Amino acid sequence: MVAFYYSEPSRTFNEFLLIPNLTEKNCTPKDVDLKTPISKFKKGEQPDLSLNIPFSSAVMQSVSDSTMAIALARCGGISFIYGSQSVADQAAMVRKVKEYKAGFVVSRSNLTPQHTLKDVLDLRKKTGHSTVAITDNGTPNGKLFGIVTSRDYRVSRDSLDKKISEFMTPFSSLVYGKSGITLSEANDIIWEHKLNCLPIVDGATNLQYLVFRKDYDAHKGNPSALLDDNKSYIVGAGINTRDYKERVPALINAGVDVLVIDASDGYTEWQSETLKYVKSNFDVKIGAGNIVDREGFLYLVESGADFVKVGIGGGSICITREQKGIGRGQASALIEVNEAREKYFQETGIYIPICSDGGIVHDYHITLALAMGADFVMMGRYFARFDESPTKKLKIGNNFVKEIWGEGSNRARNWQRYDTGGKEGLVFEEGVDSYVPYAGSLKENLDKSIGKIKSTMTNCGARSIEDLQKNARITLVSATSLVEGGAHDVIMKESSLSGE
Ligand code: IMP
């Protein structure tokens, strides 16, 4: 007996290009729909869960917290909140996303009627907020007694000891909205009464939220937002194969929409056990991975996975291949898993979505991944660069950077992700602690990436991801023609952008 050798080398996205197909006149970027399934479904039926754009953010401490999840769901994608934290903390992040109502903010500056003008001025100096809610107990959800804005006092005339009850706009004179009101109804009241801020109260006149005039424009224009039936943002969460009996119920209780077992190598009996347990005890969607071949794919599908994540060793912060010598070029992995998925579909009539995880460097890698069969991609480095990622923005030399560290680094200490049933703890690292160039806001960057993906899809004559998967023509590039792909044989001006 000898070990099995693959005759083909394993390949990365950089080694491939797409060849244009005929572009019909009614195939322009605005005709392209990027909606994509994230949970398995039967032929002819609709998936229970889809994304409006094929983007998910990685299950990483330095990438996916509630702020990222809200920002990405607002644009139509999904975040998987990292699992390398306590069950309570992860559930709190999920709950925060589910309870977030775009444009409805919990009041952050609150005082009681017994406080004084001096207290108002001190609070204003501290928070910068000019609207202070006055509640019976000074909390954001206390009984609303009034509102104070700069129009209610004159610092030059009023005594600093003056009680708020003497100068606030009392509840009886306030225009307010009732709980359950929509953002656009709140906005109508704001305009009708020429208000800057509308308090929203419940049936017992307890303050729930404030809606500000200035926020409306920022929140109204998200036609692709990924929402559930209650108009809350859809959110995912990562779990491991150790504490799932405790973690999964807590996440479901917090409202999570989809789970993923996050592991470096998912072709394990622990993943199978976890999938079977979750599927037989809860009504929740769950993905599994990561795997890089047909055997791993079928194993997880037969154990009950709703989607399968592909990729080992290609992540930007990943040193698994160097440390352990396991992994596979992301393109080769995807191509083989896609073939297995297609065969499984032909045989069973069940479509299993595939997520390509890790190794996306250029936007065109996303389009290639989709063409090679991915239904969506997962990215860490890409999202870590934005304002919305949880890490610090630092200045190094003349450049701003953001931190990113792998889940297999000593910093994250996520030993469960690399668990191979041995003793608890990271024996060696599989990830690094590093920086990425800061790139600004998520939406701005995402709009650009989506613009490029749609444009490439029209070159390939595809109006949907399914079209692209069926009809794309993909070619290998030789080492020599790689040089031809970038700008070459010219002298670059400094202002030329290399682009992402
Ligand atoms: P990126 O988009 O290239 O940054 O890859 C992100 C992916 O890398 C994640 O979704 C994980 O699958 C993987 N990953 C995260 N942390 C580590 C690590 O420490 N070592 C190896 N892979 C990691």
UniProtKB/TrEMBL annotation:
SUPFAM superfamilies: CBS-domain pair, Inosine monophosphate dehydrogenase (IMPDH)
Keyword terms of this UniProt record: CBS domain, GMP biosynthesis, NAD, Oxidoreductase, Potassium, Purine biosynthesis
GO molecular function: IMP dehydrogenase activity
Positions annotated to bind K(+): 313, 315, 318
GO biological process terms held by the UniProt record: GMP biosynthetic process; GTP biosynthetic process
Domain IMP dehydrogenase/GMP reductase: 12-488
Superkingdom classification of source: Bacteria
Gene3D superfamilies: Aldolase class I
Catalyzed reactions: IMP + NAD(+) + H2O = XMP + NADH + H(+)
Enzyme class at the top of the EC tree: oxidoreductase
UniProt cofactor(s): K(+)
InterPro entries documented for this protein: Aldolase_TIM, CBS_dom_sf, IMP_DH, IMP_DH/GMP_Rdtase_CS, IMP_DH_GMPRt
EC numbers: 1.1.1.205
Signal peptide start-end: none
Pfam annotation, one family: IMPDH
Positions with a binding annotation for NAD(+): 262-264, 311-313
Catalytic center residues: 318 (thioimidate intermediate), 417 (proton acceptor)
SMART domains, sorted: IMPDH
NCBIfam families found in the cross-reference section: PRK07107.1
Family, as annotated: Belongs to the IMPDH/GMPR family.
Protein name per UniProt: Inosine 5'-monophosphate dehydrogenase
Classification of source organism: Bacteria, Bacillati, Bacillota, Bacilli, Bacillales
